[in-house]
Write a structure and sequence with these properties.
CATH topology: UraD-like
CATH superfamily: Oxo-4-hydroxy-4-carboxy-5-ureidoimidazoline decarboxylase
Helix content: 55-70%
Number of strands: 0
CATH class: Mainly Alpha
Structural class: mainly alpha
Shape: globular
CATH architecture: Orthogonal Bundle
Distance between the termini: 8 Å
Order of helices and strands: HHHHHHHHH
Strand content: under 5%
Largest sheet: none
Protein backbone atom coordinates (compact mmCIF):
# COMPACT_ATOMS: atom_id res chain seq x y z
CA UNK A 1 0.00 0.00 0.00
CA UNK A 2 1.96 2.93 -1.26
CA UNK A 3 1.78 6.45 0.03
CA UNK A 4 1.24 7.70 -3.53
CA UNK A 5 -2.02 5.78 -3.64
CA UNK A 6 -2.99 7.12 -0.25
CA UNK A 7 -2.22 10.61 -1.51
CA UNK A 8 -4.54 9.97 -4.43
CA UNK A 9 -7.35 9.11 -2.01
CA UNK A 10 -6.62 12.07 0.27
CA UNK A 11 -6.73 14.46 -2.72
CA UNK A 12 -9.82 13.14 -4.50
CA UNK A 13 -12.64 15.63 -5.02
CA UNK A 14 -15.40 15.04 -2.45
CA UNK A 15 -17.92 13.53 -4.91
CA UNK A 16 -15.35 11.08 -6.29
CA UNK A 17 -14.23 10.14 -2.80
CA UNK A 18 -17.81 9.40 -1.73
CA UNK A 19 -18.31 7.18 -4.78
CA UNK A 20 -15.19 5.14 -3.97
CA UNK A 21 -16.04 4.89 -0.27
CA UNK A 22 -19.63 3.84 -1.05
CA UNK A 23 -18.21 0.91 -3.04
CA UNK A 24 -16.39 -0.18 0.13
CA UNK A 25 -19.42 0.22 2.40
CA UNK A 26 -22.76 1.53 1.12
CA UNK A 27 -23.78 3.09 4.44
CA UNK A 28 -24.12 6.84 3.94
CA UNK A 29 -23.02 7.36 7.54
CA UNK A 30 -19.84 5.38 6.82
CA UNK A 31 -19.17 7.48 3.72
CA UNK A 32 -19.74 10.79 5.57
CA UNK A 33 -17.57 9.84 8.56
CA UNK A 34 -14.72 8.52 6.44
CA UNK A 35 -14.75 11.59 4.19
CA UNK A 36 -14.77 13.89 7.23
CA UNK A 37 -11.68 12.20 8.70
CA UNK A 38 -9.44 12.96 5.73
CA UNK A 39 -6.52 13.22 5.32
CA UNK A 40 -5.27 9.81 6.42
CA UNK A 41 -1.69 9.61 7.66
CA UNK A 42 -0.97 6.14 6.27
CA UNK A 43 -2.62 2.99 4.97
CA UNK A 44 -3.00 1.47 8.42
CA UNK A 45 -4.73 4.61 9.68
CA UNK A 46 -7.17 4.44 6.77
CA UNK A 47 -7.93 0.73 7.24
CA UNK A 48 -8.21 0.99 11.04
CA UNK A 49 -10.54 3.98 10.72
CA UNK A 50 -12.74 2.18 8.18
CA UNK A 51 -13.04 -0.80 10.50
CA UNK A 52 -13.76 1.35 13.56
CA UNK A 53 -16.35 3.49 11.77
CA UNK A 54 -18.10 0.34 10.54
CA UNK A 55 -18.11 -1.24 14.00
CA UNK A 56 -19.72 1.96 15.31
CA UNK A 57 -22.59 2.00 12.81
CA UNK A 58 -26.17 1.81 14.06
CA UNK A 59 -28.15 -1.20 12.86
CA UNK A 60 -30.08 0.94 10.34
CA UNK A 61 -26.76 1.99 8.81
CA UNK A 62 -25.61 -1.63 8.66
CA UNK A 63 -28.89 -2.46 6.94
CA UNK A 64 -28.22 0.18 4.31
CA UNK A 65 -24.83 -1.44 3.63
CA UNK A 66 -26.37 -4.93 3.54
CA UNK A 67 -28.77 -3.86 0.81
CA UNK A 68 -25.78 -3.48 -1.54
CA UNK A 69 -24.43 -6.98 -0.92
CA UNK A 70 -25.42 -9.95 -3.09
CA UNK A 71 -26.21 -13.33 -1.60
CA UNK A 72 -23.26 -15.66 -1.15
CA UNK A 73 -23.07 -17.69 -4.33
CA UNK A 74 -24.72 -15.06 -6.54
CA UNK A 75 -22.50 -13.28 -9.03
CA UNK A 76 -23.60 -9.68 -9.43
CA UNK A 77 -23.76 -8.30 -12.95
CA UNK A 78 -22.34 -5.02 -14.05
CA UNK A 79 -19.08 -3.18 -13.97
CA UNK A 80 -19.57 -1.18 -10.79
CA UNK A 81 -16.80 -1.24 -8.20
CA UNK A 82 -19.22 -3.01 -5.81
CA UNK A 83 -20.03 -5.73 -8.38
CA UNK A 84 -16.36 -6.26 -9.26
CA UNK A 85 -15.44 -6.45 -5.57
CA UNK A 86 -18.16 -8.99 -4.83
CA UNK A 87 -17.14 -11.18 -7.76
CA UNK A 88 -13.49 -11.12 -6.67
CA UNK A 89 -14.33 -11.80 -3.03
CA UNK A 90 -16.53 -14.74 -3.93
CA UNK A 91 -14.10 -16.20 -6.47
CA UNK A 92 -13.82 -19.44 -4.47
CA UNK A 93 -17.48 -20.11 -5.34
CA UNK A 94 -16.32 -20.89 -8.89
CA UNK A 95 -14.95 -24.15 -7.49
CA UNK A 96 -18.03 -25.08 -5.42
CA UNK A 97 -19.74 -28.34 -6.28
CA UNK A 98 -23.47 -28.52 -6.96
CA UNK A 99 -24.26 -29.88 -3.49
CA UNK A 100 -22.62 -26.94 -1.71
CA UNK A 101 -24.23 -24.47 -4.12
CA UNK A 102 -27.69 -25.92 -3.42
CA UNK A 103 -27.05 -25.94 0.33
CA UNK A 104 -25.99 -22.26 0.19
CA UNK A 105 -29.09 -21.31 -1.80
CA UNK A 106 -31.32 -23.14 0.70
CA UNK A 107 -29.37 -21.74 3.64
CA UNK A 108 -29.58 -18.19 2.28
CA UNK A 109 -33.38 -18.50 2.07
CA UNK A 110 -33.61 -19.91 5.59
CA UNK A 111 -31.30 -17.20 6.93
CA UNK A 112 -33.24 -14.40 5.23
CA UNK A 113 -36.54 -15.76 6.56
CA UNK A 114 -35.07 -15.87 10.07
CA UNK A 115 -33.17 -12.56 10.15
CA UNK A 116 -34.80 -10.51 7.35
CA UNK A 117 -31.55 -9.61 5.57
CA UNK A 118 -28.88 -11.28 3.45
CA UNK A 119 -26.33 -13.58 5.02
CA UNK A 120 -23.13 -11.56 5.13
CA UNK A 121 -19.72 -13.13 5.53
CA UNK A 122 -16.24 -12.07 4.51
CA UNK A 123 -15.93 -14.45 1.56
CA UNK A 124 -12.34 -13.50 0.71
CA UNK A 125 -10.02 -16.25 1.89
CA UNK A 126 -12.82 -18.68 2.69
CA UNK A 127 -13.85 -21.81 0.83
CA UNK A 128 -17.48 -22.47 -0.08
CA UNK A 129 -17.57 -25.24 2.54
CA UNK A 130 -16.34 -22.79 5.21
CA UNK A 131 -18.98 -20.23 4.25
CA UNK A 132 -21.67 -22.90 4.38
CA UNK A 133 -20.50 -24.14 7.79
CA UNK A 134 -20.60 -20.57 9.13
CA UNK A 135 -24.08 -20.07 7.68
CA UNK A 136 -25.31 -23.22 9.39
CA UNK A 137 -23.70 -22.18 12.70
CA UNK A 138 -25.07 -18.65 12.55
CA UNK A 139 -28.62 -19.84 11.91
CA UNK A 140 -28.73 -20.80 15.60
CA UNK A 141 -27.81 -17.27 16.75
CA UNK A 142 -30.36 -15.02 18.40
CA UNK A 143 -30.97 -11.71 16.68
CA UNK A 144 -28.69 -9.63 18.93
CA UNK A 145 -25.78 -12.04 18.54
CA UNK A 146 -26.28 -12.22 14.79
CA UNK A 147 -26.36 -8.45 14.42
CA UNK A 148 -22.98 -8.33 16.13
CA UNK A 149 -21.61 -11.00 13.78
CA UNK A 150 -23.00 -9.21 10.73
CA UNK A 151 -21.42 -5.93 11.81
CA UNK A 152 -18.06 -7.66 12.40
CA UNK A 153 -18.22 -9.29 8.94
CA UNK A 154 -19.13 -5.95 7.35
CA UNK A 155 -16.14 -4.35 9.10
CA UNK A 156 -13.81 -7.06 7.75
CA UNK A 157 -15.18 -6.68 4.22
CA UNK A 158 -14.95 -2.89 4.43
CA UNK A 159 -11.36 -3.03 5.67
CA UNK A 160 -10.34 -5.31 2.78
CA UNK A 161 -12.06 -3.11 0.22
CA UNK A 162 -10.50 0.07 1.58
CA UNK A 163 -7.08 -1.57 1.51
CA UNK A 164 -7.63 -2.59 -2.13
CA UNK A 165 -8.84 0.90 -2.95
CA UNK A 166 -5.43 2.38 -2.30
CA UNK A 167 -3.53 -0.47 -3.98
CA UNK A 168 -3.97 1.30 -7.28
Amino acid sequence: MGEKSLGWLNELPADDLREHLRACNASERFVREMAAKRPYANATDLADTAEAVTMGLRWADVGQALAAHPRIGERPDGDSVEARSSRAEQASMDEADDEIRRALVDGNHEYEARFDHVYLIRAAGRSPAEMLAELERRLSNDEVTERGEVTRQLAEITRLRVERLIQR
